[in-house]
Specification:
3-stranded antiparallel beta sheet; 9 strands; Rossmann fold; 241 residues; 6-stranded parallel beta sheet; binds fructose -6-phosphate
Length: 241
Amino acid sequence: VPDAHAVAECAADRIADAIRSSAARGRPAVLGVATGSSPLGTYAALAARVRAGELDVSGVAAFALDEYVGLDPHHPESYHSVIRRTVTEPLGLDPERVHVPDGAAADLEVACADYERMIEEAGGVDLQLLGIGANGHIGFNEPTSSFASRTRVKTLAPQTRADNARFFDAPDRVPVHCVTQGLGTILDARRLLLVAQGEGKADAVARMVEGPLASVCPASALQLHRRADVVIDRAAASQLR
Ligand code: F6R
């Protein structure tokens, strides 16, 4: 699509469809939600539709992809806070139904297993929204992550910490570890929807779509999914053949 605005509207159309078709089947949708800048326009477009009375999100549940380890959930840049600010509040979702991995748990391994179980008990994710890192990561599954991986603790790649330093007072304040859904967890969602804008994502997008299926580009795992939509602007598409 031509630009970031069209990415947001096109992605919002697909998410609204998923919400309506789940509601029509009598089971509110379970969405997978991403943080980062890529999906912000999509969330704003969805919030506008809710405010206009065009979209009913009652009963909709959401599971976030990831969270930093060692950041207080009340820290403004924790993904608990970011998801509340950008998704839960603007869309008017029931906070009780919005889940974010617990990066502050005393036992992170138990917290990761609990998160997997919660997704399963909710009936699985109907539609997972994704962004892509410049290094090809999805969630915080950095290059060389296993395609079979489940929710677990990962070390952030130096590039990811540098990319996210803009949200923190100083680069060394960016946490080193995170909890992230695994590539296997993400692939279990019934639909995937990846959004990307700008030239900075063009190389990662080309490797995801046209490159070999390879763990050095974790997003290439989307090639394995039966129903993965990639919605990108012209700049992000500029390195596709
Ligand atoms: C966020 C996430 C990451 C981001 C990616 C792109 O929950 O899982 O994979 O989607 O780092 O970030 P932005 O959109 O800020 O370029």
